[in-house]
Amino acid sequence: MSKRKSYFVVLLSLVGLTSAYGADEGIAMEVVTLKGHDGSVFCVTFAPDGEMLASGSSDKTIRLWDVRTRQLKRTLTGHNEMVTTVVFSSDGKTLASGSWDQTVRLWDAGTGRQKAVLTGHTGRVYILALSGDGAILASGAADETIRLWNGRTGKLRQTLTGSDGPVFALAFSPDDRMLASGGELENTVVRLWDVQTGELERTLKWRRVDAVKAITFSPDGLTLANGSSRPEENTIRLWNAQTWELVRALTGHRQEVTSIVFSPDGKTLASGGWDRAVKLWDTQTGSFKDTLSGHSNAVFSVVFSPDGKMLASGSADKTVKLWNLAVQ
C-alpha cells in the first residue's frame, strides 16, 4: 500500500472514531444518543441496579430505557403537562414522577402501570427527592411548599412552608436527617430542614436575588453543592456540611447551571447548564477536569450510574446521552 493511500485509510479511521466517540480537549468518550422524545428532556435517573434509565419530557411522557441494549422498554403516559422530575424507589420497583400538572404519580417500573396519583400541590411540581431508606418522598413546587409523602404508600406526612418562592431543588443528606432545598429567593437561597420535625434548621445566604435550580450532597455527607443561575456568576458552590462555611466556588459554565451530581465515590462532580455543556470537576481540588460536548441545546439533567462508570444527560435537544466514562 502506498504512503498516500495509507494516509487516507488512517484519516478515515479517525473520522469513524469521531462519530462513535464524543471528545473535548482530546479526551475520548464513548457516547450513545437515545432518541424518541418529542420535547425537551427535563430529567433522567438510573434505577438502583443501573439496568434501567427513566427520562421525563415536555412531551408529557416518561420513557424507560434498557441501559444495556440502549433500547426503549416502554413509554408511560398519564401526566397532562410536562414531566419535570423522576426518581426510582430504593428497590427499583416503583418510579415517582412530578409534573407541571401539579401532581406526583407513582408507577410500577416493571409493568408501567400507574399505581397512585398524589395531589395537594397548587402549583407546578418541579422536583422530587427520595430519602436513602426509601421511607420519605419529598416534592417541591411553584406553590412555595415542600410536601413529604410516605415513600411506599404515597400518603402525605407533612407540608413544609416558609419558602419565599418556588422550590426548584431538593436533596436528602445521606443519613436522611436533613433535607436541603433551593429556589428563587430574596436573601435566603438554600434552606436546611430537619426531616423528622419539619423545622427549618439553617439558611445559607449570599448576594440578593438568585435562583438555585440544583442542589446535592456528597456521598459521605460532608459537602453540600448548589448551582447558581445568577447571570454574572453561573457558579457551583461547595459548602462544608459540618461548619456550613463556603469551601470554594467552581466557575466555567457560561450560562445557568441546571443540574449537579456527585459520582458514587465522591471524587467527581458533574454539572449541566444552559450553555449546552456537561462539565466534570475534581471535588478535592475544585479543578476543572473535562467538558462533554455533543448536546445541541440546554442540558437540564445529569446523573451518574450507580457504579459510576456512566453518566446520563437530558437536554432541550430532545435526546438523552449516555457517556461511558470507563473509556477515558
According to CATH, the fold-level topology is: Methylamine Dehydrogenase, Chain H
N- to C-terminal distance: 32 Å
CATH architecture: 7 Propeller
Order of helices and strands: HEEEEEEEEEEEEEEEEEEEEEEEEEEEEE
What structural class should be given to the helix and strand makeup? mainly beta
Low-pLDDT sequence parts: 1-28
Strand content: over 45%
Helical content class:
under 10%
Number of domains: 1
Tally of separate helices:
1
By CATH reckoning, the class would read Mainly Beta
Summarize the structure in words.
The structure is a single chain. The longest helix has 18 residues, at 3-20. The two termini are 32 Å apart. Strands 15, 16, 17, 18, 19, 20, 21 and 22 form an eight-stranded antiparallel sheet that branches. The protein has a five-stranded antiparallel sheet with strand order 1-2-29-28-27. 5% of the residues lie in helices and 52% in strands. The chain has one helix and 29 strands. It has one domain: YVTN repeat-like/Quinoprotein amine dehydrogenase (Methylamine Dehydrogenase, Chain H), CATH 2.130.10.10. It is mainly beta and 328 residues long.
